[in-house]
Amino acid sequence: WYDDELGALTGDFSKSPWHESLNGRWKFSYVPDIEDAEEGFYKKDFDDSSWADLDVPSNWELKGFGEPIIRNIQYVFPANPPYVDVDNPVGTYRKVFTVPEGWDGREVLLHFGSISGYAQVFLNGKRIGMTKAAKTPAEFNVTPYLCEGENLLAVRVYRWHDGSYMEDQDFWRLHGLFRTVELAAQPHTHVETVQLEADYTAADTAGTADTAELNAALTLRNPADAMTIESTLRDGDGNVVWESTQACNGEIALNSGKMTNIAPWSAESPTLYTLTVRVVGHDGAIIETVTQKIGFRTFRIENGIMTINGKRIVFKGADRHEFDAKRGRAITREDMLSDVVFCKRHNINAI
Asked: Within 10 Å of residue 221's Cβ, how many Cβ atoms?
């Protein structure tokens, strides 16, 4: 979400005034087993001056703390679910930050791109939650826990846990805060969900023209403070191909009707359109703008044949692990783009 349409069309939330990165140097302590972990690590007056400095995002095994392990069929520990009957290394993180000016009155979210291991999360001495999902973001509403001036974020990560039984793959076991950590501030009235359907119907033998149709369902938090929803669909050159304005309520349904001259999306020609949605207040000011890229395509199985936009498709797929020889799972955007380009060059069209 953005303040205006220009920021939304840029599509880089990291440059939004409502985004604050917590990546960088964190204080870090590693111990080989739970019994060695220090108590009171989440308190503001805890002395972490003797701790190491560790980059976030990263995997601690590739920074000199513990050893990376690779296994295929065998578990790393004796199979006795849900228990882990081996020494369980613990990594503890601490980060001091200040909330940016101008965030008063907004909902502030703490977002972890992902944490590998069982993580307990504390803010200013209070436990705010936990996560065990190693490939899924973890997000917490921390508005009630923030204070003026310096805030202390503390995260304790246990290398093994009961969920480790479901993560037993043929890959390197690497742990820690390995994706981005950030704060984001939402306005009081906010587009909470956007659900899109972008269908494409190819011309038939009777000469009917190709058509496309966009259906969108939006859910707003505190919709009473908004007056209208303004929606605009643009092509890749910025030309407006559809727009609408409608009164605001809790759930908004958008429908473009049948549109012609819309280029379909396919693996060979991945044409994208951009939908921007502006929430306008009763004073006429824009409360926020959200944006989403859209590809118009329809997937069907017709007479046992898989088709996209009425044309047969053969999926040529490959598994892909997020991995870099030096950074482990803490990969960059450039790493991801390199992998995608490599796959496309070798005629892989599915991951």
From this structure: 15
